[in-house]
Amino acid sequence: MKHPPSRPRRLLVAAGAIGALTLGTLASLPAPNAMAATGCSVSYTTNSWSGGFTASVTITNLGDAVNDWTLGFTFPNSGQRVTQGWSATWSQSGSAVTARSVSWNGALATGASTNIGFNGSFTGSNPSPTSFTLNGTVCTGSVTPPTTPPTTPPTTPPTTPPSPGGQTPVGINGQLRVCGVNLCNQYGRPIQLRGMSTHGIQWFGNCYNPASLDALAIDWRADLFRIAMYVQEQGYETDPAGFTNRVNNLVEEATRRGMYAMIDFHLLTPGDPMFNLERAKTFFAAVSARHAAKNNVIYEIANEPNGVSWSTIKNYAEQVIPVIRANDPDAVVIVGTRAWSSLGVSEGSNHTEIANNPVNASNIMYAFHFYAASHRDNYRAEVERAAARLPLFVTEFGTVDYTGDGAADLTSSTQWLDLLDRLKIGYANWTFSDKAEGSAALRPGTCNGTSYTGNSVLTTSGVFMRERIRTPDNFPTS
Ligand code: IDC
Asked: Its GO biological process terms (predicted)?
């Protein structure tokens, strides 16, 4: 573990709305000089550990559109420093900090937001700045009208932030739902989501920061971010409120970037999901309430049941799914399958036990997991048979063997992904992390730095996965 975890702190500075502004009031103002309406709000969030912190800063332009911007703020304590920033050109003089926009995020329409961030150091305490300026205007959360009427009325803030490459996966596909054996987008057309899974967030939380998530969304063009929240192994059971909070924050980060967020209740050892039934109900009640209004959250209720019958898993699912549905009726839910989500194959069974006795719920899919160096033709044949009868999602797979380590088997991995592409089965690769093991996409040490783009930070598995994931999605839009 790199940094001892600490609770994220959120400070919302003057996050006001512009509702009071009307064209009528603007038009009645006398105005000799053409000037722009100005206004902004800033939210500043930190995660700190002893002596260091990561800050995430979201700037919202409430005034007229700008083509570039400069953010200013002052650290309350003299010992606070920006050590490395991203998504802006950062400078510091004394306690005064300046962040200038870069080419791809300078243009901010009315109501548009952008997220920037930095790693910092501090001595003593690490209080958040209390005041921010954008292009010299203090961000109060309200708007100073121009002295002449604007030529165009203020536009409504967009529901998804603009992305440099155009529309985001969530922007295009919207709310998903299961249609037959497929996953369909808002136009009722089958789609395949391709993305990455975190490693255990209790160990690799430092790998999920604004720069790495920007890389996933923009450089990898990922559609999906799976958040693996282990229940045991120093996970959820040790701090339910803290882990719920961390998962919620990561969902917000995925949402901000237009990616689907898959919440993985990562039960593994013990393999009986009933052992964690009450925890699952508590956890899913909380996260589904929090994200009910979003259209990009997918719930994975049981990572890998093992050593238990299908009927036990079905019983668990039929108790947890209603908890989610009570808050978020239209979200897709994914149910793990017998024998480490192998559709039963790894314990001598097969998909027919599910097809003959499906979970009594609608809008659900079944999980299938594989590790390409361990699981080959007989598993692929079973997936092909199962996919004709059951909606499947590969919520986790590795290019390596089932231990998560060893060499990437790119031949078997290619056969697997070609099959999933053909069947339009979505997938998340294990893992977007820098653990020193073959399945990790990032080279060891990457998460101590601030650079996550391109191939130079990637392992063999990472280079392969990035190439597969970043090809165009061609999502149908009608
Ligand atoms: C592995 C990790 C490894 C960790 C181990 C125990 O790669 O670093 O020490 O878990 O927590 C799964 C599981 C997933 C495993 C992965 C590889 O869902 O948690 O991760 N795997 O063994 N099922 C099959 C393989």
From this structure: cellulose catabolic process
Mean pLDDT, residues 371-388 taken together:
98
Which atom from ligand 1 is nearest to the alpha carbon of 396? 18
How would you class 106 by CB atoms within 10 Å of its CB: exposed for 0-12, middle for 13-18, buried for 19 or more?
A: middle
Residue 392 and residue 219: Cα distance in Å, rounded? Answer: 27
* pLDDT score, position 105: 80
d(CA 218, CA 315): 40
Domain boundaries, the chain: 1-148, 169-470
Least confident of 8-17, 171-180, 285-294, 321-330: 8-17
Query: Using one digit for the tens of pLDDT, what is the confidence trace for 116-135?
Result: 888 899 998 999 999 999 99
Alpha carbons 126 and 300: distance in angstroms, whole number: 36
> For residues 138 and 100, is the Cβ–Cβ distance under 8 A?
no
Contact 287, 320 (CB under 8 A): no
Unique residue bearing structure tokens 């009208």: 145
300 lines ligand 1 (CB under 6 A): no
With 80 as the cut, is the pLDDT of residue 104 above it?
no
Distance from the CA of 439 to the center of ligand 1, in angstroms? 9
Task: Look at the alpha carbons of 222, 324, 384, 309 in this order and tell me if their dihedral is positive or negative.
Answer: positive
Domain 169-470's class? Answer: alpha beta
Annotated catalytic residue 253: no
Is 396 annotated in the active site?
Answer: yes
CA–CA separation, 196 and 204 (whole Å): 14
